[in-house]
């Protein structure tokens, strides 16, 4: 048992310095672009809150020639994102964002909103800094994924939720032999498809499209099922939502 106080910033610092954690990011960025069919025009203004080391932003810049801005709390992430060409600022996504209103064409976040305590602020600030008809792209784990529905029947804690600041496998002890890293990732809010849509519509966004996604770290025997259920967003492992500012 550890008496060390949980510090999410330290967790993220370790994450950004771990080659094993960083290696899949390029494939994740490519998958995001393919899945969402995003196709911004050259010169578009793009903001990625919680951009990490800037892998997705760098991919978008190279592929579409857009201008990408980012915001992070981690000094390591900011330094690495700048080296990847992202225009960075330091800031807390739970507070007001240091950007002018109606400044961006796109706000894009990849597996970020589940780490945010003040999700209402996150959506409000996304809306504020977007231009009229600007687009918000969100990807996040699905609480109601097909496998969570199954294990919940047997009393297990759903995947993507974390009940401990010390061990993310508690409630899912059968996974301890499957993972080398049991440090929590800091998931605070976990969404169903309907829950995320409700939140976006509550704050005045119009849903443009929704997609289901696969995750790449499941055991091999589960991958065919995961691919199949990715065709049904409400059952998929990951959620991808595109919403427009009215």
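Sequence proposed for the structure above (246 residues):
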């Amino acid at each position: 048992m550890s008496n060390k106080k949980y510090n999410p910033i330290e967790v993220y610092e370790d994450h950004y310095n771990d080659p094993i954690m960083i290696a899949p990011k390029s494939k994740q960025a490519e998958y995001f672009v393919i899945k969402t069919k995003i196709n911004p025009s050259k010169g578009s203004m793009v903001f990625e809150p919680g951009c990490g080391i800037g892998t997705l932003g760098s991919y978008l810049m190279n592929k579409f020639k857009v201008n990408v801005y980012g915001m992070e709390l981690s000094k390591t992430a900011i330094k690495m994102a700048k080296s990847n060409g992202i225009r960075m600022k330091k800031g807390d996504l739970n507070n007001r964002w240091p950007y002018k209103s109606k400044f961006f064409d796109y706000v894009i976040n990849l597996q970020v909103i589940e780490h945010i305590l003040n999700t209402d602020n996150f959506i409000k600030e996304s809306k504020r800094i977007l231009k009229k008809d600007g687009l918000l792209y969100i990807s996040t784990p699905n609480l109601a994924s097909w496998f969570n529905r199954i294990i919940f029947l047997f009393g297990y804690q759903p995947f993507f939720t974390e009940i401990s600041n010390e061990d993310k496998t508690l409630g899912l002890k059968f996974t301890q032999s499957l993972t080398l890293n049991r440090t929590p990732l800091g998931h605070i809010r976990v969404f169903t498809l309907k829950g995320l849509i409700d939140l976006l519509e509550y704050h005045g966004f119009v849903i443009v499209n929704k997609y289901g996604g696969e995750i790449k770290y499941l055991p091999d025997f589960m991958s065919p099922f995961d691919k199949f259920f990715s065709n049904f967003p409400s059952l998929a492992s990951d959620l991808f939502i595109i919403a427009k500012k009215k």
